[in-house]
């Protein structure tokens, strides 16, 4: 009898212990989520990202020991209420190594998981599809094993570290075309391409010669400045244009040659991940003097020529399209058929052949609207509707129609732009579209010249003349920040908000490049691609949109190279907010200054300069040993 009561008591104790253990494990699960999943990410983020997290190992170089702590959950509110505790974020989880090249809005895995119904023939799977806030990875993107600080420009044009982009399949696949060659620890770029095996420099000179430009220089005495290279490969065409004072927007999708844009940016060459699919490209109308396609494998005849009409939208009056492809020279029946149909299409678009030689044809767009007005009624493609805005691009579907010129461009018989470099500081004609005066433009140019000078004084203890190459201005307004950097050996990706005045056309008219974007979403670039990010009131702007400032910090960390810099120019409460995350992001404060140093109108702004430390996960260190 005693034995039975004893066994019963023992069973009760076991059951009680199991219940306590279950409660404890449940509490631990909830507590784990409160550490790693912010309020804005929710339970779905745990499901989507938890398998990818990794704690940062003791291998963090130059950092403190990581300690977990509950993060500040008021991501979009910078000011603190009275009595609110000043919580400092101690650590973020680290994504799994397989996400070291994650591009959140161009993530094939996300497309599969969300079961999106996309038309592959229209390249929709290469367009932007961003995760909802609850499905975002709230973790730091790790560098690949053995990551090294990138080789400096101009040496980087010709070689990069193999460990930084450990993909050599293009070297084998394009071995006969001199795209790239693996040599020991480096990948070398001889300057070749699919159509110019013996060097982009000779090919560029041949295009200039075909157009009878002075001294075979494609810049045509400064009149040809901005180029759009579609299907650019590793961007050697754009790389070799730079010495002629020409800047190219090199575009390619994340396709079977998936790392081509990553190589371009690692080399220090302007480039952007995108595709001619169903949406307009994020550039305004009349932005480029030359578009280029060298065997870019695009079906220009599909959907009533809609892709060619997108190029037409982007070209300036009198702009050129250089097309190097078998259709331009091959004699087999299939190529001849494509050539005849393409020739008929561009003729109806009022393009004319400016030159044709060997394997390249160069078409030229008209200078005025005269040809459009003289076409027979019902001619296809039609002119765009009068209410169609050719500069509306963010998420806007392409239209199979011809964008006519403004009255100004029609009267001027062209864009009326000064040659480079005078156009950088000359008031662009399209200022009038915004009601801006020449005086406003000149004041803005001078203001940012002074601000950039002060930035460089603050940065000077940390940088040398070749420290920075790839720069992004996250809110560019009229492009005066980039204009002030003209004498630095850098290029600037100017970003204009999708919901503000579309001043990007002013930026292109100054001979600069950029894209439209919303900072509530991830940018279309690989991790570790920019040396300097300039964020002028960007955090204040996303607070108004009620987007997550924490997500923006993680995105800035993703696209910034280790040892790169961030310049935040914003209100004091924003700077205080960012300071809470420095340890968690492995960033280091470099300098703080108020805007009185500039003696300008933004008297309440604070300038905060940050440097990203270099770190590796313990797994990465083991893999690189």
From TrEMBL:
Molecular functions (GO terms): methyltransferase activity
Keywords, alphabetical: Glycoprotein, Golgi apparatus, Membrane, Methyltransferase, Signal-anchor, Transferase, Transmembrane, Transmembrane helix
GO biological process terms on file: methylation
Annotated membrane topology: Single-pass type II membrane protein
Pfam families found in the cross-reference section: Methyltransf_29
Origin: domain of life: Eukaryota
Location within or outside the cell: Golgi apparatus membrane; Membrane
Predominant subcellular localization, coarse grouping: Golgi
This protein's record includes keyword Ribosomal protein: no
InterPro entries: Put_SAM_MeTrfase, SAM-dependent_MTases_sf
Key word Nucleotide-binding present: no
UniProt family annotation: Belongs to the methyltransferase superfamily.
PANTHER family named among the record's database cross-references: METHYLTRANSFERASE PMT8-RELATED, SAM-DEPENDENT METHYLTRANSFERASE
Name of the protein this chain belongs to: Methyltransferase
